[in-house]
Amino acid sequence: MFELNPNSETPLYMQIVEQTKLAIAKGYFRNGDKFPSVRELSRQLLINQATVSKAFRELDRQGIIETKAGIGTFISFDDEKISQRFEDITKRLQDDLIEARYLGVTLDEVIAMYKKAGDYNDR
What we know:
The chain has helices spanning 12-25, 38-45, 49-61, 79-102, 107-117; strands at 34-35, 65-68, 72-75. By secondary structure, it is mainly alpha-helical. Helix 1 crosses helix 3 (49-61) and helix 2 (38-45) crosses helix 3 (49-61). It starts with 11 loop residues before the first helix and ends in a 6-residue tail after the last helix. 11% of the residues are buried.
């Protein structure tokens, strides 16, 4: 499921974060599903455990996973953190729409861009 590109400008830990979110968006993971441990993912991806740990910290910070000592790591949406991120995204989208309108991009063009960007099934 995870395909890391060591030559990418995006750090490996952020590639794990982004690919986890994409896997959730595609329905591979749902709230409550077990997530691989740091050790398992490190072994699977052939990367340092510290890199995977950093990804886990970021996923936890974003309210996407929760690690329960002695039990494991699970996809666990933190409603408060998710709500804050939703507000952040709304603000960024508003800013982007203002910029697009300033550049003369029509609403139909914005909608087409949004649809193209949202077509993650082909990725």
